[in-house]
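Q: How would the structure tokens look for this protein?
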Amino acid sequence: MTPTEIVTAYYDAFNRGDAEGMLALLADDVRHDVNQGGHRTGKDAFAAFSAHMTRCYRERLTDIVVMASPCGTRAAAEFTVNGAYLETDEGLPEAHGQRYVLPAGTFFALRDGKIARVTTYYNLADWIAQVSA
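A: Here is the predicted structure in token form.
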């Protein structure tokens, strides 16, 4: 698969709620950089994060645009997150099913046909304002 196809397959799996499908596209030592947070390394850590996100949020990504570098080692995606805040996440406002729409983007590093790094960015202040309204 090309880098664009890999990233598209990753987001297709995300939108299906297919955590195993996402994990299959990741390198064993994947580095996951969280928006305004630290990073975690490895598929197990990514799987734990995914399970946490599924418990606290229901999200569907739309308007996805994927771009890739000519060398095939980097890719990026811009998209809109359409979500519902289901369960209170530690340190964040109380959840009661609030809906939100948020622009976001992710940068990827690719190696040997797998995603080796996932770095996602979005405006946390915007999200907090939306779920606090």
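The chain has a mean pLDDT of 96.

The domain at 3-132 is CATH 3.10.450.50 (Nuclear Transport Factor 2; Chain: A,).

Upvote if useful.
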